[in-house]
Amino acid sequence: MLPHQRIAGRERRTFHWRTASPWTTCVRVACCSRLRFMWFALMVLTVLCVALQMLGVVRQARSSKVLKLVSEQLVGMPSEMHRPVKRKDWGNVWSVSAAIVEEPLEQQPFIQRKDKSENPHSEEGRDQVLEDTRKTLSSTTKAAPAIEGNKLWLDQDFPNQPQRPAFPKRTPEIKKPPPSDDKTDTHTVKSLVDDTVMCQPKNHIVFLKTHKTASSTILNILYRYGENHNLTFALPLNMHSQLFYPAFFAAHFVEGVRTHSVKEFHILCNHMRFSSQEVRKVMPKDTFYFSILRNPVAMMESLFVYYKAIPAFRAVKSLEEFLIQGGRSYNASVPNNHYARNILTFDFGLDNTAPENDTELNKRSAEVIAAVEHDFPLILISEYFDESLVLLKHALCWSLDDVLSFRLNSRSERSRRPLSAEIAERLKEWNSLDWRLYQHFNATFWKRIDSTLGRAKLQQEVELLRAKRRKLEQMCLQEGGAVDPAQVQDSSLKPFQYGAAVIQGYNLRLELNNDTRQLCQRLITPELQYTSALYTKQFPQLAAAHAAAAKKIAASRNTAVHRAVKRNIETNVHTAMMNNTSHNNTNKVSVDEQLTRFS
């Protein structure tokens, strides 16, 4: 192209850009290259995303406002709407509830806006609607007994009893109960109210495992539930079976706390001396706390047999002799003597020193009871073990199968000794703090049942629990029950023997299939073996390291023992040879035979 033609073409293009509209110019500039086109597309997408997010925030805010409005109005509903409902009244309740759910939000009579100008119903209109609803509910039902203070029946308080959380409900599904006659008692009505309200199973649990209170059976229940639901246990450090008891519990006693290798713990249930502040460093805020007590009279008899080797019991032949002497061999400052006096109070992390007089006893026992009530919303009673399991099942919102169990760490009858009435009274006086603690929670145990579940419903579930246990025993066990440790065939399932107690175990049937055998074996696995298995499952690398270290220690220990025994044999035979020189050749052969046999 000639120079003057190039100049002319450039002038025409310049004139074209100057005379073009601004929008056309922007589009041409933005699209004149691929990079600019991609930038333009990304900007458009970004604007759309921001717009969608803003729309979602607006919709969420509107939903939150509606939910808040509903909750505030429901809280302010008249007390008549909260009265106990009998079984035959549930048809009415469901029909009204269904109508409320299906009705549009703006037309629901129970929702009142904070701003009166926005309220589509006047005060008179709202009162009229509430009155009509009350008439609808009461038209086909009998009047329920009035509740003092317009409080919900299930939340009633008893005199001298601390506040407790509402009793958790059992079934996750709402089912309409069958109709019944007018003879339905109040306990059954309360059970029905309890059963029909949804609840969530509790997975964050702390169980304070007390001594000689059937706590090993509770531990097995928690172990099996946690394993079935893939929960994480707060297990003792370095594969120990206890959380460094009798020292006060500390958070670093739990494996994985210092290394931060565990993000969340679900169940803490091994032996420890309770420390509320330290436990709360390990467990989440919504954790449910419970424990179990036993009559100190029967518990002391079991403690004496099991811990006969402690200094307080070592010098006496019987528990009667120990008490008649006034506990002369007991010294609170000597290690392990805490087992001999007020051990329940000690396990709860409180001062178990005996009060000097009745005034101090009244003051100290009140402090102990208040401290336990503050930290533990549920206390089970060992003497009513099946009833306690049913209550625990409701408190945790579990099923009956979840609390099904066999007795573990139980003594043989031949190692039990009956106590006279005089000795029983001496034991109550000796363990005065534990006796007061047991008396109080034995009373509140039954008050809790009466106020939540009811005796009739409780008995029904206890019988069902026992029937399920008998069926399991027939399916799993050879002899149908516990046997002495010498008769336990599988050494891996033999319970640990300590003191003068004879701890019984179980034998499984031989013809069980794999799944059934696994179920039955977990039911009878002793505490030490189960704890070790869970530790290996949660911390496989640490467990392998501990196993290797244990083998090295055992090997070195065996070598040292071998050398000591060999020296002992050589010394004994050498002495015999010196005493009887006429049999030197025979003795030499004897030395060689003994050393060869030992090797």
TrEMBL record:
Q: Name one GO molecular function term.
A: galactosylceramide sulfotransferase activity
**Sorted UniProt keywords:** Glycoprotein, Golgi apparatus, Membrane, Signal-anchor, Transferase, Transmembrane, Transmembrane helix
Q: Where in the cell is it found?
A: Golgi apparatus membrane
List, as start-end ranges, the regions of compositional bias called Basic and acidic residues. 112-135, 170-187
State which residue ranges cross the membrane: 37-58
Record's keyword annotation contains Transmembrane helix? yes
Check the record and name the InterPro entries matching this protein: Gal-3-0_sulfotransfrase (IPR009729), P-loop_NTPase (IPR027417)
Example GO biological process: glycolipid biosynthetic process
Principal place where this protein is found? Golgi
* The keyword Transmembrane helix belongs to this UniProt entry's keyword annotation: yes
What GO cellular component term, any one, is given? Golgi membrane
Bilayer topology reads: Single-pass type II membrane protein
> Which family is it part of?
Belongs to the galactose-3-O-sulfotransferase family.
PANTHER family this protein is in?
GALACTOSE-3-O-SULFOTRANSFERASE, GALACTOSE-3-O-SULFOTRANSFERASE 2
In Swiss-Prot or TrEMBL terms, this protein is called Galactose-3-O-sulfotransferase 2
